[in-house]
Amino acid sequence: MSYVRGKLYVVLITILGVYSLLLHAEDAVKKPFTVADDIGLTLFLGPRGGEPQLSFSPDGTYFAVWSERGRLDLNRIEDSLRLYRSEEIQRFFENQQALEPSPVWVVRRSTSKEGTIINKWRWLADSSGIAFLERSADGELQLALANLRQRRIEILTSVPEGVGMFDVLDRNHYVYSAAEPEESTRLQEKKRSEPDAPAIVGTGLELDRLLFPDDPRFIKSSHRKCLWAAIKGKHFAVKNDGALIFPEGELALSPDGHTVVTTVLAPEVPASWEALYPAPYPKTPYGRIRAGARNVRQYVQIDLRTGSIQSLAGAPLAEDAGWFWGPQGRASWSSDGQEIVLPGTFVKGRDGAPSRPCVAVINLRSRNAECVETLRLRTEELVNGHTEVHREEGYHYVYDVHFVEADNQQVDVGFINPDESRGNNEYRRSADGGWEVVKQIKDDSSVSQNGLQIAVKESFNEPPLLVASNEGKSRTLWDPNPQLKNIEMGQATVYRWMDKEGRQWKGGLYKPIPYIAGRRYPLVIQTHGFSEDQFRPSGIFPTAFAAQALAASGIMVLQMVAEDGTQLDQCTGMEEGPCGVSILESAATQLIKDGLVDAQKIGAIGFSRTVFQIMEQLTMGSLHLEAASITDGVMFDYFQYMQMPERMSREANEVTGAAPFGDGLQQWLKQSPGFNLDKVTTPLLVNAEGRDDILFMWEPYAALRYLKKPVDLILLNTDEHVLTNPTVRIASQGGSVDWFRFWLQGYEDPDLAKAEQYKRWRDLRKMQAENDKKAAPAGANASLPKVK
Hints:
The chain is of the alpha+beta class. The protein has 18 helices and 42 strands.
């Protein structure tokens, strides 16, 4: 009997062992995460982040969600709108059916190689479809209509220079801004003829516009877009006394389709405006009202049939009066077309005293104006080279206003707080004609209708899911990335540290695969932000950053951000460079103390604004980086300053403490990274985005090349700043992975297509070794904790 039991025991152990192997087989065959996997992800956020785009139709019958992914097989971006029937989602809860409800229609568009394809989408008022701006093959935006009843896409406009702003009532009634065809043709012909002209006026133009006059971006930006309308399907340019009308802001079409509210430049600022609408504080750098000026906008009502223009508030926009980060949203009509709510203007005080800007409701019959919410004050002042920022209690940035359920007795104000959290204040008109808050909502980026709530559930460590909630129950509607079940990703955690000034910071720490506790790993620091709420495995942007792909290669990655969004206000003016260095060095120091990082194998990536931070680190910092890369960003060097003195001068002068002329040049010699490139001891990868960007990124490359220091220059064939094109992303993000693996791990990809790349880099490594021999014996990392 014991023998039988023994045999059974052996068989049982064998079965359990086989079961265990099968159970872990899936983990064993998981493949590492690559840049190609990153590009192919379906995300509910665009390349610049933001909030998920979710919306119920006005009648509540349907629900729509936008998503985007890269298609390497097509070398294109693919955008989608998935439309669900609300009733089917309700049944999904009631019946507890296993299968996720299928959308009634999926609108897929992949018409351009770069840039978001479906832009500014919104439901028609009768819920029969969705209007949006679609990016065409040549990159221009055209007004499109997705007809839900017919399951058909219709392009409503066909203009050479594309659509700027729009609003749609139905397929026969809409407004948009675009270039007048004759003017567009004339300007393009003028641009083409300029190279053959005996002389070209260059005054006021930046250097790249003179060198690259055929660049389509410069041709497009050389004229303004005028107002167009369609009434009963007939297109026409709206004119006032025979003159074109040029809207300066978003368009809001009336319920009858005959009137639009927008902003235009005031013909001439009256003297009374200068006194009535003063700047928020005397030293504001963002503008103020001046009598006689012609660069101030106001809200107006335009009759599309006659072209007549009527001022609504008789006052300027809050932005143009110097109110920092004034409202940007659209005006909104009441359902009866009798009132309009404006996101940021002034209401004249009854006693004629100066007033503050507010969210205002205008009665179009009586022209009576009422303030719903007064805008709070945010001030900036440069004190001893440091920008001091102050905010009034309750300050936030208004981004959306609308009447609640088309009821002109209620107004909803959507806002963004300084820490980037969102919320809504709902106001109701009181008996005395004023407005009072009746509801405050902390926005969680979800939308709801009749008890049904739809949201995107994700975090920096959790791929996104579309989920629905009802009566406390939650179910997944759609998993857009099932392929991730077969991909191994590095563990990401929130990492906190303190800099030497006592400021608290945090970032996302991506641990390498496989991660072994107690081992010290190479580190790449990615600058420019981190969000706990968003799944962005490359980093906050898809340009240059490649966090999870680097982690899959055995490199630890820290994606940095402030502990509180407002803390970066301390890193302005002359403090910006030293503050950026302090954040980076304190993070590296803490990771070394924690036994996570090899002090001799640290790299960093700068993009856009944080290129300056990396160049400051390379020229002024005490932490030696083994490798670094920079892509399309400001460095506040002399050559960038000379290319665009009018655009760059104010910020550059603040950052360096002076203008680079006379005695101020001595300050630049000390402060600007461009004049201190002889101190660089780190191999640097310089990436330019487009040929005009070569000029912008030229100085560090040229100087380091002259100084015989290891530097490589890559021209990315794009005119995008935040990259979307799949193959360009491969070049940018894949280039980052190759560069840091080469310098931090000594690794070379065996792909034969990269042979020339590694030949160049091996020559740079020899150059680096020769420079190290000539360098002083004192280690650059002497101030860091010793690695045992």
